[in-house]
Amino acid sequence: MHFPISMMSMKERLHPAPRWVSVVAGVGFLITLLPVLGWYVRRAMDGSDEPLGVIALVAAVVLGALGVCGGGPNRIQLHPCRLLLGALVLGVIQNSDLVRYPLAIAMLAVAVISLSVSMKRGKAGLVALLVLSMPVMASLDFYAGYPLRVVAAEISHGLLTVAGIEVERAGVMLIDGGRLVGIDPPCAGIRMLWTASFVAAFLAARMRLGWTQTVGLMSLAVVCVVIGNGVRAALVFLPESGRVEWPESLHSAVGLVVHGGVLAALFGLASRLDARGMQDTQVRPLPWSRRAAVVVVAMLLVLGGSRVVGRHPPKAVVEGEVQWPATLDGIPLVPLQLGPMEVRFARSFPGQIARFQWGDGEVIMRRTDRATRMMHPSGDCLRAAGYRVESEPVFLDGDGRWWGASTARRDGRQWDVHERYVGSAGEASLDASAWYWKAVLHPEDGPWTATTVLMPASGSVAVLGKR
User: Which positions, given as ranges, span the membrane (predicted)?
Assistant: First the structure.
C-alpha cells in the first residue's frame, strides 16, 4: 500500500525504528564521511586556517547530545532510513567525482543531517553551527574581506564627516590632508563576523528558535557587525591619523568594546525573538516534501557551483614563459629552486611562480591572468609552515609604493613580510581580497603579478625603495 510522505512521517513517529537500526545508520554515515573527516582534521591542524570552526562543532555536538538524551516534545529524533539514503548519495557523489571539493561534500553532509533528524524547535540553530564549523575563515577573508572593509571605510567616512573631520575614502583607507591612513587591518572584521554569527547560531539553538527567527537573527548579526566595524574604524582613525595620541594597547581595547557591544545587541535581539516565538506554541514545520525540495535545490546549487569553479583547467608552470625582473630596487634577484611545498602548489596554480634570493631576504613572485582563489595571501602559506603571522599597518617604501605588511615569527626568528598585487597597467592592490575583486570586475587589467618580500626583522641589508 502506498502512503503519502506525510503519512510515512506519522508512521515513523508512531513506530520508531529499533535502536540498532539507528546505530547502523549512524555508523554507515560516518564511514561514508571518513575522507571528509580526514580532510577536516588536517585543515584544523595544519595551521593554514584558524581553527575557530572546532568551537562551533563542539557546541553543535553538545547541544545535539542534550537534545538526543533529553525528553519532552523537543527531543531530537533520528530517521535512519533517510540517513542511510543520504550516506548512499554522498558515497555515489564522492566515487563519481561529481564534486571535487571536500568542503562542498561536507556541506551536503550537513544537509543530509538536517533532513535525517527532527525536533520541534531549535534545529535551525544546530544546522547553522554545523555550517560555521567548516574551516572557511581563510576563504571567507579572501572573498568577503575586501567588501566588508570597503563598507567599514564608508561608514567611518560618514561618521567622521558628521563629526566635522574632513576626509576622503580611497578603497579601504582614508585620505587625511593628502596622507593615506589605514583604519581596518585584514581579518579584523571577518573575525568579528564569525564570532557574531557563532553567538547568533548558539543562541538560536539554545533558545530553540525556529527557522525564520534563526535566519532573522543571523541577518541581524551581519548588520550589527557591519555597523560595529565602521564605528571601530572611525575610532581607530583618530590615533592612526595623529589627531589624538593614546597607547597602542587601546587599539585592541577599542575592538573589544565594539565587539562586546555587538554581542550585547545580539543577546537583546535574541531575547525579543524568543519572547515572540513563545507566543506561538503551535510550531508547524515545513512538510517533508517541501523540505526535501529545498535541500535538493541546495545540493544542485553546490554541485553546479563546484563544477563552475573547476571548469577552467589550470595552466602548468612553464619555465621561461615569463620574463622575470633581474633586480628589485637595484638589488639583484638571484633565482632559487622552488621548495617541495611550492612545487606542489605550482602544479595546480593557474599561472607561473618564481622564487629569488634578494640580499639577505627572499622574494616570491606569482603571475596569473585570471581571478583565482589560489592567489591567496602569503600569510596562509606561512601559517601552514608553522609561523605565527600578525597583520601590521600598511607600509610606504622609499619610492612611494604602498605595501600590505605583516610579521611572521617562528623558532625565535622574526620576518617582515611585504606584499602587493600589480596589474599590467601598474595599479596595485595591497591584499589578496582587494586584488580578487578588481580582477573579477576588470579582467582586462591582467595579467597580475603578486610580489611577496620576506626580510629579517633586524639588520637587513635590503630595503624596499632604497636604491
Answer: 20-40, 52-69, 76-93, 99-117, 124-146, 188-205, 217-238, 250-271, 292-310
